[in-house]
Amino acid sequence: MAARAPVGYTYDDLLRFPEDNTRREVIGGELFVSPSPSWRHQEVLKVLGVELHLYARQEGGVVVFAPLDTWFTHADIVQPDALSVTREQLDRLDAPLERPIKVVPALLAEVSSPSTRRRDLTQKRDLYERFGVPEYWFVDLDADRVEAYRLSDGRYPAPVLLGRGETLTAAALPGLALAVGELLGAEA
What SS3 class is residue 59? Predict the structure, then answer.
């Protein structure tokens, strides 16, 4: 079966936009523009970032945050809230830490926002599954939990749901352990 040509927007189109810190993503050739996230979103992302950074510092690899283009195809470029690339993945890159990142990350994380929630749980989740992202975390601020999607036989089965008092781990990042309550912050 021949691959169909991308329709609509591509990475070349993204490059034509000004560098104005506006989050622009293309999924299946469709352009998505998102407003800036909430204060709580940023606080949760900060805690997640610190934990992932400390892990990468000890084990090797790198953690980056949006806005940074992550390339899957010419018509599928997203800006996950956080992504982790292992030391082994960095060693395989021709130009590490360049824009866009052209490697399937070991871990991708999205923190819920009203404007992106549906896309994060459908189009992005499907994209990550299709390209074999080993683990995808959706930090659901409304439900006060983390949904951990873990690739099994090329698919994401139902997510592991983790709440306060539980510990979040990732098979692709052995030894990483995050207290979900600390990640979510003070109870609302």
Answer: helix
167 close to 185: Cβ distance less than 8 angstroms? no
Give CA–CA dist 88/60, Å, rounded.
Answer: 8
pTM as predicted: 0.86
Question: Count of CB atoms within 10 A of residue 131's CB?
Answer: 13
CA 61/CA 135 separation, integer angstroms: 16
* Both structure tokens of 32: 């998505």
Q: What pairs with residue 146 in β-bridges? A: 139, 162
The structural domains of the chain, ordered by start, are: 11-184 (3.90.1570.10)
pLDDT, tens digit, 9 for 90 and up, residues 130-166:
999 999 999 999 999 999 999 999 999 999 999 999 9
pLDDT in tens, 59-93: 988 898 888 889 999 999 999 999 999 988 877 76
Go through the chain and tell me how many residues it has: 188
State the Rg of the chain over Cα: 16
